[in-house]
């Protein structure tokens, strides 16, 4: 679990004005526990990857540093199986000082290749599976987190509750769009951080996809703060 000393290590390595304006308030909120932050890096036209799923790198180096800092601040980073299948991410904090989080992948039917980087020895990894999935005998049972399936998949509140029972208290939902959208639609995300790059893809995979609304005034209009990360703009949206 991320400790006060871990969070201080992350903050000490940040520069002003981001330390005071962005990271200190975030670290204070995370310290309270039960905190969920979600992120997506996207183009000006709201794409998080090309049609083929290529997303490295939409954002610039400062945004990547920010993403690694977010990882270092939380207890666990959560991704969907699609992100592991497409990007094969490490989900470590190698760009910044600070501890690696516990890595969590939602892989309901255990379809992922266990040689993916997320399953390396750099940090512990938990796999969230559907309750009825037949476990793979080569995977240690303590690495599997079983969650009951409901209409539409594994309910995000149940996923978070199961992870909290493992002692994890703060979470970064790192992607992809389907996973971040499901957690936001379920109302369990405290902060959404959108990193918008000065890039127009013109086609590609859309970012957030929430249930359909009929009127503009039904949309979310979060309180937000805006920060510059190199050439990218970070919209830090409060969803509570
Ligand atoms: N720009 C960015 O910030 C960013 C970040 C991450 C990823 N990406 C890009 O996003 C793309 C992948 O995103 P994606 O939206 O296709 O996939 P994803 O969100 O990474 O994964 C979706 C899959 O994860 C599983 N899953 C996640 N939440 C679930 C739930 N609540 N219940 C049941 N299953 C759940 C399901 O696996 P099954 O299919 O096995 O049922 C689902 O199909 C890639 O192209 C990647 O490069 C971009």
TrEMBL record:
Gene3D superfamilies for this protein: Dihydrofolate Reductase, subunit A (3.40.430.10)
GO molecular function per UniProt: 5-amino-6-(5-phosphoribosylamino)uracil reductase activity
Record keyword NADP present: yes
GO-annotated biological processes: riboflavin biosynthetic process
Pathway: Cofactor biosynthesis; riboflavin biosynthesis
Top-level taxon: Bacteria
Annotated Bacterial bifunctional deaminase-reductase C-terminal domain residues: 35-207
Pfam families referenced in this protein's UniProt entry, alphabetically: RibD_C
Name by which UniProt lists this protein: Bifunctional deaminase-reductase domain protein
């Amino acid at each position: 679990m991320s400790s006060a000393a871990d969070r201080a290590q992350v903050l000490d390595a940040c520069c002003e004005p981001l330390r005071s304006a962005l990271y200190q308030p975030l670290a204070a909120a995370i310290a309270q526990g039960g905190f969920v932050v979600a992120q997506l890096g996207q183009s000006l036209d709201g794409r998080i990857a090309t049609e083929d799923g290529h997303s490295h790198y939409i954002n610039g180096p400062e945004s990547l540093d920010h993403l690694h800092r977010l990882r270092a601040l939380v207890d666990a980073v959560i991704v969907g199986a699609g992100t592991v299948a497409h990007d094969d991410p490490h989900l470590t904090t190698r760009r910044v000082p600070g501890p690696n989080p516990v890595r969590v992948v939602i892989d309901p039917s255990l379809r992922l290749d266990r040689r993916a980087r997320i399953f390396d020895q750099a940090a512990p990894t938990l796999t969230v599976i559907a309750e009825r999935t037949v476990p793979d005998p080569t995977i240690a049972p303590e690495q599997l987190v079983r969650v009951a399936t409901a209409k539409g998949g594994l309910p995000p509140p149940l996923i978070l509750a199961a992870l909290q029972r493992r002692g994890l208290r703060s979470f970064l939902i790192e992607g992809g769009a389907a996973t971040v959208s499901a957690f936001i639609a379920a109302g369990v995300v405290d902060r959404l951080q959108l990193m918008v790059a000065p890039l127009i893809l013109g086609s590609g995979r859309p970012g957030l996809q929430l249930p359909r609304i009929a009127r503009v005034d039904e949309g979310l209009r979060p309180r937000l703060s805006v920060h510059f990360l190199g050439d990218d703009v970070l919209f830090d949206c409060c969803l509570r």
